[in-house]
Design goal:
This protein is of the alpha/beta class and about 625 residues long. The chain has helices at about 30-40, 45-50, 70-80, 95-110, 145-155, 155-175, 200-215, 260-265, 270-275, 305-315, 335-340, 360-370, 380-390, 395-410, 420-430, 430-445, 515-525, 560-570, 585-590, and strands at about 5, 10, 50-55, 65, 85-90, 90, 120, 175-180, 230-235, 255, 280, 285, 290, 295, 320-325, 375, 445-450, 460-465, 480-490, 530-535, 550-555.
Length: about 625
């Protein structure tokens, strides 16, 4: 791209006309530049800005962006032909290659009529767990505890430090938007997305969500050239999931809230609004028969609800940023969506909850008129243009939405600096300092619920299900003084034909005596004192195994070597439970899905460790 030199300053000639246009002039405010650009755009270009597509990759899941290399021909069509300039990346590559691939996207954008840069977004990618459509692998990036692990530490300062490091790593590879944090609260222990939350306490979640936004956006006064914009989610009540069934699936499309519990689910968002969070993503779910202001809420998903977005979010809570719908809510839902007879493929995914009978054009219009400024996972510019041409959406509403998306690109400095240095990416991403900070946080997140009595400096350990070995490990149980076994919260395979249901942990969370893992614990404990480490992507009911255990630790995103060292060295643990551990499945089934800490006579309360029970 050519540049212009005026008054000793250099400007990018974004529209390739040899003249400095106001939107190209970095001396002007983001507001005035965005308004000037808006006036130059065709309706098709505005519609493109309102799409949040996928940077497609090469591979079997390339349409979802999963792979090591972008499909640049497909992305050329998205950026140049469809005018789309917000793309989610699910690339899994080295920092150097990641940066180079994102630079290639920006080069495509630089050659378009107006030279609008691409805003590249990502799901979380600094943790241990990854589920396609919700989180990505931590390849190359520093690795930190799950969000629940950060909640186990409970420090706003540490969460802000994490977000600052993640922000720097994101910007180094050319990522500008974080589709996080989750402000959902973990009120239903069977819900499959608890690991992405800050736990069960609305007050703690509010504090830590605010700290996350402050670190990721680099301050509390809005976006600037060092910021990664945050999209806090899911507005609102997503975690109040009956039986824990998730809203990605047809059988989980309802949440249950009351006016009383709604306040609890709104609270975690509020500090992020004070910190001028860039965006909000509505929930997939329908708030079943929720009465708000004396009337039953329209029975549609959050992305289609004017009451939730325009009235509650904007008018009552004062949110000023953009609203980005969640993915695939505009796609059709047929019999294969509700009762799949074979395994669903990515092409079967559709979540138009409450608007199944509307056409795609009508769904687009309903979401935009409800208050969505951008359509997540969509690249269908033609349908949005048709809705505009049919009068279903006003041009003024389109201009409002487009402006909200453009002004943030200017605030982040993308029009001046869309490209990144691949060498810097190699040096900064996953640096020694960042990895050390992540490992320190992992160590601090470890929770001990039952301190072992069998551990001393000469103890020889038999390890089971760990990938890391250590000096005091023995290969035969007969030679061991104690055993350490790594487990996960139990789950059931309840919906094997559903794309997301087959990938999410569902069902009962108790260690029933009939489970093979419970039998294994009993067998080990009869031979040597046995210590369990449980990875809790969801809370677990440990009542039936705890008496067989000499020690019990909770893993919310910890490397094996750190966990083993913490146990064998008798290091004092610092983490506390960010959610309660119910006493029984009867207690789980009897509690409400929308209220925190309400299971009867919980075995371990929120905030518990072995010192506080």
């Amino acid at each position: 791209m050519k540049t212009l030199t005026i008054d000793g300053l250099e400007f990018r000639d974004l529209d390739h006309d040899g003249v400095l246009s106001p939107y190209e002039d970095h001396r002007l405010s983001a507001d005035s530049r965005a308004k000037d650009l808006l006036n130059r755009m065709t309706m098709a270009e505005k519609a493109g800005v309102m799409m949040h597509g996928t940077a497609q990759s090469i591979g079997p899941l390339g349409v979802m962006g999963v792979g090591a290399e972008y499909n640049q021909q497909a992305n050329q069509e998205l950026i140049s032909d469809s005018k789309i300039n917000h793309l989610i990346t699910r690339l899994d590559s080295t920092p150097h290659e990641f940066a180079a691939q994102n630079n290639a996207l920006q080069q495509i954008a630089a050659n378009t009529r107006l030279g609008i840069p691409v805003t590249i977004s990502t799901d979380p990618r600094h943790h241990f767990q990854h589920v396609t459509g919700a989180s990505s692998r931590a390849k190359g990036f520093s690795q930190w505890p799950e969000t629940t692990g950060l909640a186990a530490i409970g420090s706003a300062e540490l969460v802000e430090q994490f977000a600052e490091i993640a922000r720097a790593e994101y910007r180094a590879v050319g990522i500008h938007m974080a589709l996080s944090p989750q402000a959902d609260i973990a009120t239903e222990p069977r819900w499959s997305r608890i690991s992405g939350t800050f736990g069960e306490s609305p007050n703690l979640a509010r504090t830590l969500v605010g700290a996350y936004v402050k670190g990721m956006q680099s301050g509390t006064k809005g976006l600037h050239e060092k910021s990664v914009s945050c999209v806090v989610k899911h507005w609102v009540g997503y975690g109040a999931a009956p039986e824990g069934f998730d809203g990605h699936n047809a059988y989980g499309r309802f949440s249950q809230l009351t006016e009383e519990s709604l306040r609890l689910h709104v609270e975690p968002f509020l500090t992020s609004f004070d910190h001028k969070v860039a965006g909000v993503m509505p929930t997939y779910t329908i708030l079943e028969n929720l009465v708000l202001n004396g009337e039953v809420l329209e029975q549609v998903a959050g992305g289609f609800s004017k009451e939730l977005i325009t009235e509650l979010l904007r008018a009552k809570c004062g949110f000023k940023g953009f609203v980005l719908s969640d993915w695939a809510i505009f796609r059709d839902a047929g019999e294969q969506t509700f009762n799949p007879t074979t395994k669903q493929t990515p092409m079967d995914i559709g979540m138009p909850w409450g608007v199944e009978t509307l056409s795609r054009e009508q769904r687009f219009a309903k979401a935009v008129n409800a208050g969505c400024d951008q359509l997540g996972g969509e690249e269908d510019v033609a349908t949005l243009l048709s809705a505009i041409d049919s009068g279903l959406i006003s041009e003024s509403r389109i201009d409002e939405a487009t402006y909200r998306m453009l002004v943030q690109k200017f605030e982040q400095g993308l029009f001046e600096s869309p490209f990144v240095d691949t060498t810097t990416a190699d040096e900064l991403v996953g640096s020694k300092r960042a990895r050390a900070a992540g490992r320190k946080a992992q160590r601090k997140s470890i929770i001990c619920l039952k301190k072992p009595s069998s551990v001393n400096s000469s103890t020889r350990y038999y390890l089971e299900n760990f990938s890391h070995s250590q000096a005091d490990e023995v290969t035969s149980l007969n030679d061991a003084d104690a055993a350490i076994i790594k487990l996960s919260t139990p789950h059931e395979d309840l919906h094997p034909n559903f794309f997301f249901g087959s990938r999410q942990q569902e069902g009962d969370i108790d260690f029933k005596p009939t489970l093979q893992v419970a039998k294994r614990i009993k067998a080990l404990s009869k031979k040597v004192p046995t210590i369990a480490v449980i990875q809790m992507s969801r809370p677990a009911v440990v009542t039936d195994i705890i008496n067989d255990l000499d020690g019990l630790y909770v893993d919310l995103g910890v490397s094996d070597d750190l966990m083993i060292n913490a146990i064998s060295s008798q290091i004092e643990t610092e983490g506390t439970l960010p959610f309660e551990l119910p006493r029984s499945m009867h207690a789980v089934r009897s509690q409400r899905p929308d209220f925190p800490s309400d299971s009867e006579n919980a075995l371990f309360q929120v905030g518990a460790d072995y010192k506080k029970q």
